[in-house]
């Protein structure tokens, strides 16, 4: 399994736009065979940082999702929402793997 961790720098004045963007991606990732673990929005502390976590069974499945999303109209509409509103200033993507807890592995 591969888990993708996204850290967003968002425009705090456009939080509602970012929330809509996140709601759409949760549904889309799940439709493409992933498991979305949610978006995590500012509460206390930094008002312009948000996170998202989602997983795919493996890196090959994640790459297929990335390829398929390029031609999916709903994915492209969602990306356009972020571009049009400017709710995302920048983001970082990390790939993580779970520790299974078994000794010697």
Verbal overview:
- The protein is α+β, with helices and mostly antiparallel strands and 105 residues long.
- The protein has a domain at 1-8 and 17-55 and 88-97.
- It is 39% helix and 30% strand.
- It has helices at residues 15-31, 59-69, 73-85; strands at residues 2-10, 35-40, 49-56, 88-96.
- A four-stranded antiparallel beta sheet has the order 2-3-1-4.
- Helix 1 (15-31) packs antiparallel against helix 3 (73-85).
- The radius of gyration is 15 Å and the shape is globular.
- The mean pLDDT is 93.
- This is NIPSNAP family protein.
- Residues 8-99 form the NIPSNAP domain.
Task: Write the SSE topology.
Blueprint: E1 2-10, H1 15-31, E2 35-40, E3 49-56, H2 59-69, H3 73-85, E4 88-96
Q: Estimate what percentage of residues fall within beta strands.
A: 25-35%
Taking pLDDT < 50 over at least 5 consecutive residues as the criterion, the unreliable ranges are none
Which overall shape is indicated by the principal axes computed on the Cα atoms?
globular
The side-by-side strand order for the widest beta sheet comes to 2-3-1-4
**Count of alpha/pi helices:** 3
Percent range for helical residues?
A: 25-40%
Question: Biggest sheet, open or closed, and with what strands and sense?
Answer: 4 strands, antiparallel
Number of strands: 4
Oligomer: single chain
Element string (H = helix, E = strand): EHEEHHE
End-to-end distance, in Å? Answer: 15 Å
SSE-based structural type: alpha+beta
Mean pLDDT: 93
Q: Tell me the Rg in angstroms.
A: 15 Å
């Amino acid at each position: 399994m591969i888990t993708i961790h996204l850290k967003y720098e968002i425009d705090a004045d456009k939080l509602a736009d970012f929330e809509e963007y996140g709601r759409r991606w949760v549904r889309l990732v799940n439709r493409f065979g992933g498991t979305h673990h949610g978006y995590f929005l500012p509460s206390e502390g930094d008002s312009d940082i948000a996170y998202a976590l989602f997983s795919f069974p493996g890196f090959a499945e994640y790459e297929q999702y990335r390829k398929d999303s390029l031609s999916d109209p709903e994915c492209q509409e969602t990306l356009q929402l972020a571009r049009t509103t400017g709710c995302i200033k920048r983001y970082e993507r990390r790939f993580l793997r779970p520790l299974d807890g078994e000794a010697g592995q």
